[in-house]
Write a structure and sequence with these properties.
Enolase-like, domain 1, seven-stranded mixed beta sheet, 478 residues, 3 domains, FAD/NAD(P)-binding domain, five-stranded parallel beta sheet
């Protein structure tokens, strides 16, 4: 009999990390994968996208070389075919590394998995005609692209005229005119790459801002930067029809049409919960996602849902954190995951990074919140390395508890800097303790110390006013 402690369906960031952690803990694991090991993130998402975006960043530096005092002779262009080859090589190397890592930690079953009704209180998964039994079941099936009900879109997808991010990362040729429906993370990252590769890119967004979940000023700076690169962005616009070689949309009650050689649909993602026997369990849903508690447990005892499929945070690093937590929570309430300290990054140039509350969100949550904003021009490293000097760092803090609760950055190195701020937020580090930390010079991250020093001064002033008011007997801030 094929029997293990844990059956894991899906080998993306959630599934393979859960397998690694469980294996290291001495638990036996069957890990099921119907496609490629590593899931969407490794094969069709995070890693290939960043490979393409790095090439885009390099070509733009070449295009601005004279501003850095470098003379480049001849015509400089991005070789898309070679970029795709390099992307495939990077993915292959990462996949081989993952296979090696998992070799002694889990038994990998390649094939479509299907959940069957329980037998003798054990979970049963069938794959390749064989049954596998386990005490616990982890669902880590990830998410799928949403295809909205737009006239002509279904037919366009069938013809290959309309594509999702998966196909966008495998295009053999750069489309002359690329229309992107949706100005979220995926849409803007691929807009940045294909613009650098030579496409005339048009982005159409239904809402009145790009990156709707991010801090407004930071998102606005990124939008203006992308527009300077020639990317056309239409906000508050609704796509009404996908034609043969064009996209129809309404903006300000006016019908408009834009020419397209490819249409990339990037309006969001939904939980991948169909086609693998989920109906054979008693699972409570939250829309298209599996509902879980703060310990990643589902409504059926012994079943955990981790990663995108639970809809808590559609980010690879959040999935990894949830995987670790779920293994710890197999037998007890050992580890809760706080979504408020999970950072998010948009890997465009410039990059955008965010974690925790915006000021508006904090005030709505009745937190005694204030905000400090610093230009990245405070950093000599930033000024030395950048031509476009529009970067900012905004930090939201809790005056009462003397700690940071949110941070939002647009500019170089923000994807690395945000981890430091996420740590301070998660640990609720007192601003006085952060002030004592020595940051290396010159680095862009020094702005954190500058911002925190300002915050500490503002909190001290506020506390002095409160103390003075209390000593005067009125208890009111003057």
């Amino acid at each position: 009999m094929n029997k293990a402690d844990i059956l894991i369906i899906g080998s993306g960031p959630a599934g393979h990390i859960a397998a690694e952690v469980a294996g290291d803990s001495g638990l036996s694991v069957y890990l099921f994968e119907k496609d490629k090991l590593g899931g969407v993130c490794l094969n069709y998402g995070c890693i290939p996208t960043k490979t393409l975006l790095n090439s885009a960043k390099i070509i733009r530096q070449f295009q601005d070389s004279d501003k850095y005092g470098i003379d480049v002779e001849g015509y400089i262009q991005l070789n898309h075919e070679e970029v795709i080859k390099r992307k495939d090589k990077v993915v292959r190397r990462m996949t081989l590394g993952l296979e090696a890592t998992l070799r002694d930690k889990a038994t990998i079953i390649k094939g479509e998995a299907k959940i069957l009704p329980k037998e003798d209180e054990e979970f049963v998964v069938e794959a390749n005609g064989e049954k596998y039994y386990g005490k616990y079941l982890f669902i880590a099936t990830g998410s799928d692209s949403i295809i909205p009900p737009i006239e002509g879109l279904k037919e366009a997808v069938e013809k290959g005229f309309a594509i999702t991010s998966k196909e966008a990362l495998e295009l053999e040729e750069v489309p002359e005119n690329l229309v992107i429906v949706g100005a979220g993370v995926i849409g803007l990252e691929l807009a940045d790459y294909y613009s650098a590769a030579g496409s005339k890119v048009t982005v159409i967004e239904k809402l009145d801002k790009v990156l709707p979940s991010l801090e407004e000023e930071v998102a606005s700076i990124l939008r203006k930067s992308l527009e300077k690169k020639g990317i056309k962005i239409h906000l508050a616009s609704t796509v009404t029809k996908i034609g043969e070689k064009e996209v129809h949309f309404i903006k300000r009650e006016e019908d408009r049409t834009v020419e397209a050689d490819k249409v990339l649909v990037a309006v969001g993602r939904k939980g991948a919960t169909k086609g693998f026997g989920l109906e054979n369990l008693s699972i409570e849903m939250n829309g298209s996602f599996i509902k879980t508690d703060e310990y990643l447990r589902t409504s059926e005892n012994g079943v955990f849902a981790i990663g995108d499929v639970n809809g808590k945070s559609l980010l690879a690093h959040a999935a990894q954190r949830q995987a670790i937590s779920a293994v710890k929570n197999l037998t007890e309430d050992a580890d809760k995951v706080s979504s408020n300290s999970v950072p998010s990054v948009v890997y465009t140039t410039p990059a955008v990074a965010s974690v925790g509350y915006t000021l508006e969100q904090a005030l709505e949550a009745d937190i005694d919140a204030k905000e400090v904003k610093l230009s990245l021009l405070y950093s000599g490293r930033y000024v030395a390395e950048n031509i476009e000097l529009t970067g900012i760092c905004k930090i939201v803090y809790d005056r009462t508890n003397r700690c940071l609760i949110g941070a939002h950055i647009v500019g170089s190195y923000s994807s690395e800097i945000i981890a430091i701020l996420a740590s301070f937020i998660d640990l609720k580090t007192d601003v006085k303790d952060i002030e004592k930390i020595v940051f290396p010079h010159p680095t862009v991250g020094e702005v954190i110390h500058d911002a925190v020093a300002t915050i500490a001064q503002k909190i001290a002033k506020h506390e002095k006013i409160l103390a003075s008011a209390t000593s005067n007997g009125d208890g009111q801030e003057s």
